[in-house]
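Cross-check.
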Amino acid sequence: MEVSNCCSCQMERLLRYSRTAERTSEPIITSYPEHKKNTLMESYVNEIELSYKRKPVEKLSDPTVNISSPEIANEVLRQIFPENEIDLRENFYVLYLNHRKQLMGFYRVSIGSNRATIVDPADVIRVALLTGASSLLLSHNHPSGTTKFSSADINITKRIKKAGELFGIDLADHVVLTSETYISMRAEYLKNNSKKSNSSL
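Predicted model, tokenized:
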């Protein structure tokens, strides 16, 4: 009898626990209004919209110029760069070219200090993909007036070149401007590697 009573007590406690669990779990499902339940069940995915707008720039003498040399690149870049900032702070611009090396457009990637500017290769390549560019020409200015490429200049050039290769986008050149002159990384590379004149940067 004592064993039977003990079992009965245990069963009763089990049933009470079960009923309590049911009562406490029910509000999780039934206490929300219908619109709240729908909100909880829905999952959202962001829709990405990309746009590319052609913006004519009047100061460019020939918007579709064929940029076939550092000399031409220098002429075009000086029409784009803010003249009053060349000796003030670094600006990083990219020229986007089609398969004929014609200028499709330009993009200011970043504005920095008088010593440096931060450039994200992904940002440069993203615009190239949006515009359908076949190649790109990098450019920034040295407010100090130096015509030597820094290790940071060379490093970012290599990173952008490597990123572009993944999408079949060529790197035409990297031109640095000062208020008085300019320097071409491709020209410097070819000058130092005259036996490899067909090599790219």
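The longest strand covers residues 103-111. DSSP finds six helices and five strands in the chain. Passed to J.P. for a second look.
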